[in-house]
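Running this now, will post back.
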Amino acid sequence: MLPDAAKAPSTSPRVRAAIDIGGTFTDVALEAGDRRVTAKVLTTPARPEQGFIEALGLALAEAGLSAADLGLIIHGTTLATNALIERKGARVALLCTEGFRDSIEMAYEHRFEQSDLFMVRPPPLVPRRRRYGIPERLSAQGSVLLPLEESAVEALVPALAAERIEAVAIGFLHSYVNPDHERRVRDILARRLPGIPISLSSDVSPEIREYDRLSTTVANAYVQPLVGGYLKRLQEELARMGASCPLLLMMSSGAMVTLETACSFPVRLLESGPAGGAILAKQVAAECGRSKVVSFDMGGTTAKICLIDDYAPQISRSLEVARQYRFLRGSGLPLRIPVIDMVEIGAGGGSIASVDALGRINVGPESAGSAPGPACYGRGGDHPTVTDADLAMGRLSPERFAGGRLRLVPERALAALEAEVGRKLDLDPVQGAAGVSEIVDENMANAARVHGIESGKELAPRTLIAFGGAAPLHACRLATKLRIDDIVVPVGAGVGSAIGFLRANIAYEVVRSRYLDMRQFDPDTVNGIFAEMRAEAEAVVRMGAPDEPLAESRTAFMRYRGQGHEIAVPLPCRRYSADDAREFEAVFAREYRTLYGRTIPRLSLEVMTWTLAIGTSQSMPAPATVSERRSVAVPSGRRRVFDADRGAWEELRLYWRQDLPAGSFVAGPAVIAEDQTSTLVTAAFDAFVNEFGHLVLSRKSAR
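Update: finished.
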């Protein structure tokens, strides 16, 4: 276990810091040898680097270190995600094959909500007037059917300048097979429009399926100037601070990449913060010997739920952002990037509560963020939020919130709850707060149930790992709704994603769409594809890990001939021979049977896409020793908390987590407080501190 920082200065030559910028808070975790320092400050949306520098400065000061002592900084941010959701990105031009400029608007040519006559499609990031067709055409095999008309590209330059274009996306038909036309257009525009970032679909998403490829490339161009400008300013601020260490960025896949790669492919950073949380959860699962868990990350703006089996989060090849309809697949912008598969909903501490015309309490997805923030922050917010409800019910300490850096104002929370909830439902403010808490808990439970059903996995036998500033307050109620008996609240739960960054590998994934009919399996072709991908991925990883040993994984996306979609099939990492065709087919049959319960006889197979991931590898920790209860913890005080089930106030025992050594036992109901969060142990649970310092909550009736 890494305890909080001691007073003595570090003697470790390697000091690492991780900073996670969320919608409400910016979190930092700093490790120096066997010590850890954490801090939480409000995010500064207009200039995110200011919150970054403030949080890092606080952690360095507490550790007695300077920026010059830093050996590595790892960073994750919601900047790209927010730009897409809020439509605050760059003015992008899309250059595509002539005759296909409306592909990005036609999308999948279906209605994602059949029964809604007033269905609203997500508008494209690039309006039609900034989409330009270029005369050129490639076949599906990459041969040139119509040569690129370079004069048309040259003639387009004045129009792009007149439109004040800030970024360019280029996506030609079948460029994933032959990128020559895209690269030639890039060279022409780079010469005529210096300083304008250009995204090629053959680099960003070299895969089949035109709409997904175009959507991903446009999204990359849309956020590239914003992310690139931010990272440049951040570098300058770090240099002024005296830091000269490498800065690595967390990707949605849970791997880290260099600053240069992040600037080129910022679309891969979209889910960087949640990815850090999933990494933390898998490590905590290993330390606690829990092979099947539900990761529950509830911060200030959103709640994220991820399923982890055998200490590995579920991975997806795509995600959807900026959905127009809550939970409805197809109503957002599809992106083809590697991502940890999770469900994310607008259910955080800052989620705004309201009452609709039917007298129903609604919570989220709108958030008060950090500016102005919940009403209790006293920064101008007047809408009630989940944090206001938790404060009104006595779950939070006004003086110690966010480590005492932000003093909460209970009177403002009560006034907002009275005005927006209580008065409309004829309830007192505290009863209104209980209603808000119940609704947000049910929203999260429902999202978890749907995610479990879509994944074909049960939730009840799992352990809930709760972290983020708000999750430990709501974990017991969520576990009760999901019929989960065990909860783990990790050390440093309030800044869990930042701590997860410190556990991530430096890695990169490359994808190639190359069609292969398994009846004509050619091992030389397959070996050539993987050799090319390994060289590209290793070049990226070696910039951040020049000497470390690397681990590799390979996947083929295969299907029966005639099917419309593929399944992921893991492949051995070696040089292939003609005999490997049978192994490919056997592994496909095993994976297909796992998903669908059967295979289809006498159908040939085909491979559409290949992926290769390479990176550093960290061994998983040994599980904690299971020990009997050694000591009943002594409370440090009492806290008056409203029990929503009984509809009455009660005096709960209050414990400070730093005062609980390994082996401490806490009987519920109780509150276990710490600087960045608090854990509400309901009457149905008891808590135990294991040897890693994690809180393990167990349902009394299950023992």
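Residues 1-13 have pLDDT under 50 and may be disordered. More later if anyone needs it.
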